[in-house]
Amino acid sequence: MKSKILIITAAVLLLVSCGTQKSGSTAATTAPVAETAKAVVLTPELEEGKNLYENSCARCHKLYDAKKFTQEEWKPILTRMQKKAKLDDTQMASISNYITSQL
């Protein structure tokens, strides 16, 4: 009798745990779709700025979301990082334009 109760309990727990995971994955799938709808279409110049930002800045530290700082806060950060990343003014303008487009 006890073995039947254990088997039924195990079966119920298995079904409940599977049901919980399924609804959790649905929420995870829905979130990126909402973010994609907000995405800005990048021109070739902005795409270049994005590539420079991702490749130059990520060499030394994690990339920050552009919205983490205001445009005024980004200016001194980018100025300071330009020298460390050894980027010319054209490359920095491209990165700055990309970040501004994401705000």
Short description:
This protein is an all-alpha fold and 103 residues long. The protein is 78% helix and 0% strand.
Key attributes of the depicted protein:
103 residues; mainly alpha
Please provide a written account of the structure.
The chain is mainly alpha-helical and about 100 residues long. The chain has four helices and no strands. Helix 2 (about 45-55) packs across helix 4 and helix 3 runs antiparallel to helix 4 (about 90-100).
**Could you list the spans in which at least 5 consecutive residues all have pLDDT below 50?**
20-37
Order of helix and strand elements from N to C terminus = HHHH
- Kindly state the number of beta strands: 0
- Average pLDDT for all residues: 76
What percentage of amino acids are in beta strands?
A: under 5%
C-alpha Rg, in Å? 24 Å
User: Structural class, from helix and strand content?
Assistant: mainly alpha
Terminal CA distance: 65 Å
Number of helices: 4
Globular, elongated, flat, extended or rod-shaped: what is the shape? elongated
Please give the share of residues in helix: over 70%
